[in-house]
Amino acid sequence: MANEEDDPIIQEIDVFLARSLLEKLYLFQYPIRPASMTYDDVTHLSAKIKPKQQKVELEMAIDTLNPNYCRSKGEQIALNVDGTCTDETSTYSSKLMDKQTFCSTQAASNVSRYAAAVYRKGELHLTPLHGILQLRPSFTYLDKADAKHREREAANEGGDSSQDEAEDDVKQITVRFSRPETEQARQRRVQSYEFLQKRQAEEHWVHLHYYGLKDSRSEHERQYLFSQGHGLAENTELIKSPSEYLMMLMPPSVEEENDKPVAPSSVLSMAQLRTLPLADQIKILMKNVKVMPFANLMSLLGSGTDSTAVLRCIQQVAMLVQGNWVVKSDVLYPKDTSSPHSGVPAEVLCRGRDFVMWKFTQDRWVVRKEVAAVTKLCPEDVKDFLEHMSVARINKGWEFMLPYDEDFVKKHPDIVQRQRMLWMGIQAKLEKVYNLLKEHLTPKKQEAQSGHPLLVSGEQRVNMAKAKVKQNYGQLEKELQKQKAELKSNDASSKMDVPNIRIKEEPVSDEEPMDTSAYEGMNNGIVNGLHAEEDSTDSLNGHLPAGCADRVAQELKAFVSSTFKKQFVLTLSELKRLFNLHLASLPPGHTLFSGISDKMLQDMVLDVGCKQILVPFPPQTAASPDELKVYALWEAGDTYDQHRQVLLEIFSKNYRVRRNVIQNQLSQDLNKQEVDRVLK
Known about the structure:
six-stranded mixed sheet, 42% helix, coiled coil, RPC5 polymerase, RPC5_C
């Protein structure tokens, strides 16, 4: 009450609602111009409008006599747009840029709250606005200049190349028949951005007449801004109760289904976003951003938003990964949709993306090949999953894009526990769908779960694998003893006299045994991976029992055969590297861990049909002896065997050969594409 006494009412003004220009009055917002030049001085040459779109184009004259006008620049622009010739189609007939076009855009989608007011003789007259349009300069003349420039270049090139041609070239025409359009496809096409643009372009322009500010017609139209009668019958809208008046000032938020934006549906301003319910705001933000910390989400929702309500809504559309929120897969891939790359249904995509999200709950790094091998999805879909929530690092893999949010984990332990339970349910589903092993699904232990996840390098992973092999050595030895006991029991019926056994004496090789340093820790006291006990007849002179040796030979032969069918030509050094990688991928206790020497590997290469190519490398080469031994698959069983043998014979005479020499040797039977295939 004290404040009201300090601020007394000094005047009461009657307010009237004018209806004469209802749904006809627009507000134009012009660009800022110099203070010395008002729009009263500007000459409007033409105006046109598209009523349905509320789009206006105005053409205004430029004062070329103004001292601020650069005449040379205006002449240059006119020359670029129209060229040297002037005709009816010229944009600037005076060979000078003497006019400018302004095109409108809608300043606000909802103008029902705005009105134009006129004050006269103690009365305020209001007329509701039908639209607010911002006029901005249009630079379509630059596009016209570029188009003419391209036409001139095309004409010059076409004239030079076609002077001697008497007839036009015959062009092949491809005829395609369109399929019948389904209802779902038609709805997508109608809602597409291109279709909306096409419909807008089809609307015809309505040309208008412009009347200046001091024109008599303008003066006449201006009178319609005043209410034509002061009777109460025409102003019943202004006679409202306080509650109705308050409802008119602050109407409830209603979704405007008719006023759809021209831009794509994914484009939404923050002002429009905050008119939506809180759940819809969070869903739209998470769908666009994909990954977001909780603090950033609260800042986007604006001050005064209840964090408890936000936490309740965010759990419906996102999952917690390393303290950050990642949008759920079914939000990105709704039901009855499919992959744009492979056409895989949304259900399969959701499972694959959930697997990637789950992997990031275990570690900060994910390997793309591992995800593709488990999910059996195409590389493009897997790449989309990873780009949603991670960043590619060279020679490391994909790293989760945000740091571990320790603050959120400490402040909301109940949310973290609830999300952990949800991930356990997802883990159980993934185990059934992808048939994953239990040890692969158990989460890695993290220190106190609240600290930052450790970054494990490749070298550390190798050391961890070595330590794991040493730990499992006891179990492997038990399995070995069990196998020996079984072999002894099988041979008990036919007792063999050890002195009468003929043992094949292998010549002592000068070659070093194959480098298997990754398994040195488990080879102490064993020969070729097996114990050489004094009283054992199973392992003499490094030989394996017959059954075990056959299994080792079969496994080794399968590896060598499949490797050469993929790569055809390999050095011994590269073959050993691939074999070590193959060993690293095998489970503990595999038969190939029994020890494979270089000689065994080379003999097996020759047994599978490969030949050693004696390439005459230069004496001063710095390559190692293993890199100088080259083996090639002599017969692969395809149509290029004969040509591949010719190519290998060429390289047996010289280690460096020009392409034209190879082309001359192979071009008699093969075309260029086939020669490239053989060379590759």
